[in-house]
Amino acid sequence: MTSQSWRVYGYSALITIYLCSVVFFSMNSSPHPNQKNGNVERFAEFANFRNTRFRGFTSRTNIRWCNGLKYLKTDVSSHMITTVPTPQSTIKVMPIDESKNNAEYQITGLTALASFPGSGNTWLRYLLQQATGILTGSVYKDYGLLKTGFPAENVRNNSVLLVKTHEFGPKAWEPFTKVILLVRDPEKAILAEFNRQSGGHIGFAAPDRYKRTKGKYWQQFVLKSLKMWEATNLSWARDFTGSIKVVFYEDLVGNLESTLRGILNFLEFPIDENLLSCTLLRREGVFRRKKRFLNFDPFTASLRAMIREKKLAVYKYLESLK
C-alpha cells in the first residue's frame, strides 16, 4: 500500500514538473506585444499587419531624406496637412536651398501611380519623395510602409504628389486626371510579388514554396499573375481617358536621371537640381529588394514561353504610346 502511494506521488510529481516546463517555455518563446526584439507574425501570406515590426523592415530603419517631407498646399481640411520633419540623424550631402518652398506649389487634379504589384512602385515613390520633398499617397494603408518612410499612406487627394494604386477599371480611374503607368518585365514582376507575399517588401520566399504541392501552387500563381499583369497595363493604357505617361522599370534602373526628369515634367513639378542630385546619390534607399539567385529555375519552358508572348504584345502597344 505504501509503495503504491509513493508511486502515485511520483507520477503526480512528474506530471506537475512536465506541465510547469511546458508553461515556462511557452511564455518565454512567445513574444510579448511590447517586446522590442519580438518577431510576431500572423499570416505568412500577408505583409501588412498591425505590429511594431514588419517583415522586410526593422524598427531601426532610418531613411536619410534629402529634405524634410511635406504635404502640398491644398484646400482639404487642415488636419490632413502636416509637416513630417527630417530625422535629426539625416546628413545632407549638399546644400539645399531652403528658400524654395515646394509645399506652396499646388497640383491641379490628381495623378495615379499605377502598376502591377512587384513593378517597383515603392522604389519610385521613394525616389520622387527624395526629388521633391513632397509626400506620396496611396489607395491602400500598408502599415509597414506607413512606419518606414510613407506617412501619407491612405491619403488620396491633391495634398500629395501622386497616389499609388494597383487597381484598374472605371471606379479606379474616376478620381484621377493623370496616370504614371509603371511597367516591369512580367517575369521579374511576378517573382517580386511572390517574394513580397512571402517575405515582405524586401524579403524573399523560401525556396520550398516554389515546390509546394509539387509546383502546382507556383504555376497557378504565375498564370493568375500574368493575366493580371496584362489586364492592369492594357486597361490603363487603352481605356483611361486622362493624360498618361508610361515608365518602364528598366529605364529607371538604366537611366534614372533622365527618367525622373521626364516624370517631374509630366507632373509639371518644378525641378530642384540640388534635390535631384541628392536623389541620384541616394538612389538605392531601403526599398529595393537585393538580388538572390536560386539554385533552380522556377519557370518551366512553357511558362517562360507564355510570359514572353504576353510581354511582347503588351510592350509593343505601350511603346506606341511613348
Topology of this structure?
Elements (H helix, E strand, L loop, with lengths): L1 H28 L39 E2 L12 E2 L26 E5 L5 H12 L4 E2 L4 H4 L16 E3 L4 H4 L4 E6 L2 H14 L16 H24 L3 E6 H6 L1 H11 L6 H9 L19 H19 L3
Helix pairs in contact: 2-9, 5-6, 6-10
Report on this structure.
This protein has 322 residues and is an alpha/beta fold. The protein has 2 domains: 1-30; 69-319, Rossmann fold, CATH 3.40.50. It has helices spanning 2-29, 121-132, 143-146, 170-173, 186-199, 216-239, 249-254, 256-266, 273-281, 301-319, and strands at residues 69-70, 83-84, 111-115, 137-138, 163-165, 178-183, 243-248. A 5-stranded parallel sheet has the order 4-5-3-6-7, with helices on both faces. Strands 1-2 form a two-stranded antiparallel sheet. Strand 4 (137-138), helix 3 (143-146) and strand 5 form a beta-alpha-beta unit. Helix 2 (121-132) packs across helix 9, helix 5 (186-199) packs across helix 6 and helix 6 runs parallel beside helix 10 (301-319). It is globular and about 85 Å long. 32% of the residues are buried. The model is unreliable at 22-60 and 76-101 (pLDDT under 50).
